[in-house]
Amino acid sequence: MLRRNSHQLGLAKWVAVLLTTASFAACSGDGGGGSSNGEGGAGAGAGTPTGSGAGAGTPTGSGAGTPTGSGAGAGTPTGSGAGAGTPTGSGAGAGTPTGTASTASGGNCTGPVDISPVGGNPFDGGRLFVDPEYIAKVQSSIDKTTDAALVAKMKKVQEIPTAFWLDQIAAVDRLAGHLDAALELQNQLCEPVVPVIVVYDLPNRDCFAEASNGELKLDENGTERYRNEFIKPIKEILAARPNQRIITIIEPDSLPNIATNLGGKRCDQTTATSYEENVAHALKELNMPHVYQYIDAAHSGWLGWEDNQKKGAEIFARVINAAGNPAGVRGFATNVANYTQLSYSSESYDQQDNPCFGEFDYVDAMASALAAEGLGDKHFIIDTSRNGAGNIRTDWGFWCNNIGAGMGQRPKANPGGATRLDAFYWVKPPGDSDGVGKAGEPRYDLFCGEDNADTRAPQAGQWFHEYFVECVKNANPAL
Ligand code: BGC
Question: What is the pTM of this model?
């Protein structure tokens, strides 16, 4: 994936800047925090959120007991299977349940679970589903680790929700099972269990980078295949599950690439037009009452400059309008798979006059830019999966497996700090590689060989044990 600042190149790198949030009170725009409807965040420099709670993934209610059957998983997994609990359990974990077990797979709810979110925020009310596949990946790292303190931290990660990436057509085959595991748990716990799905397979994907070039090409029937073999089956699978609250994140990097990288590398006009049309198609097709969509909106180091914000907001508005302004478009996801912190007091790279220091500022600024385009009602989420540590790169544009990264704030609904912020969430599963680090390998991107990148990395999306260990050790808040 591309996650770089392509704005104003050529400025000095390596310049240490020591700036305070007070000296840069807000991003450009209205001074931060403003919103058309009087809601709004605390503005720039709203501060680092306090509290290090285990997040929305940690259940507080009655648990599902010991996962001996195929029911919803529970407890800390000890096996290496995909399910939580023993390797024979096929269910998914949802943290460390306490309390009485429910034994029947149908659960003991007295009626259908009410999936309506609290105050319209799909991250609020219920719990976020912990991906069994991620639990298994983490388990593979636990199995290699002898340090007991580190293992204890890794086990905590097995209770944290992460997104399920549909990054190729073949991945759609695993979607129904993923959703069914969440539903099974929901039926056991009698409260909403909410999965988060990333829709990521546009034709000519990742046009300004190499690492995540997709399988679909425009000149090989890419649009038809995207619509018929990818979006259509996703739609059918989601439509068949109206009793689940499902969150989607739509096509990371695509529309931001049009905003700033048009004409560069493979981001030609044909590709740009198809990104807009296919994202609009996805938004329209996946518009269902139980599905909440967030469009990827880059991060502060990419669309943080005022002119970029405006370009981005215009494109978002155009695409949403082209889709018919679907009610299911709840808002935007920022910092997806990036390392940008929530707010800074200092950084070691040149910020190139970008008034948005961190994601809080950026969300405030984008909220204003979007309001100017008639989208003043949209909400935001921030990917905090790997933004716990600052000062880990010498250029804001470095996006690939940055050495020194640490897990950030745990997923949490309504964390505050910025305008209409629905949640912190772990969109990029920490430990999944951003891109292969060795020159000569397929899809090798130079950014994955930069000084700040861990060049031991496997292909994008593959499990990178050594990197996972670093992210655990450097977690902030600590695990
Ligand atoms: C990769 C995907 C992967 C996702 C989550 C992206 O960078 O291209 O294949 O699923 O990251 O790790």
Answer: 0.83
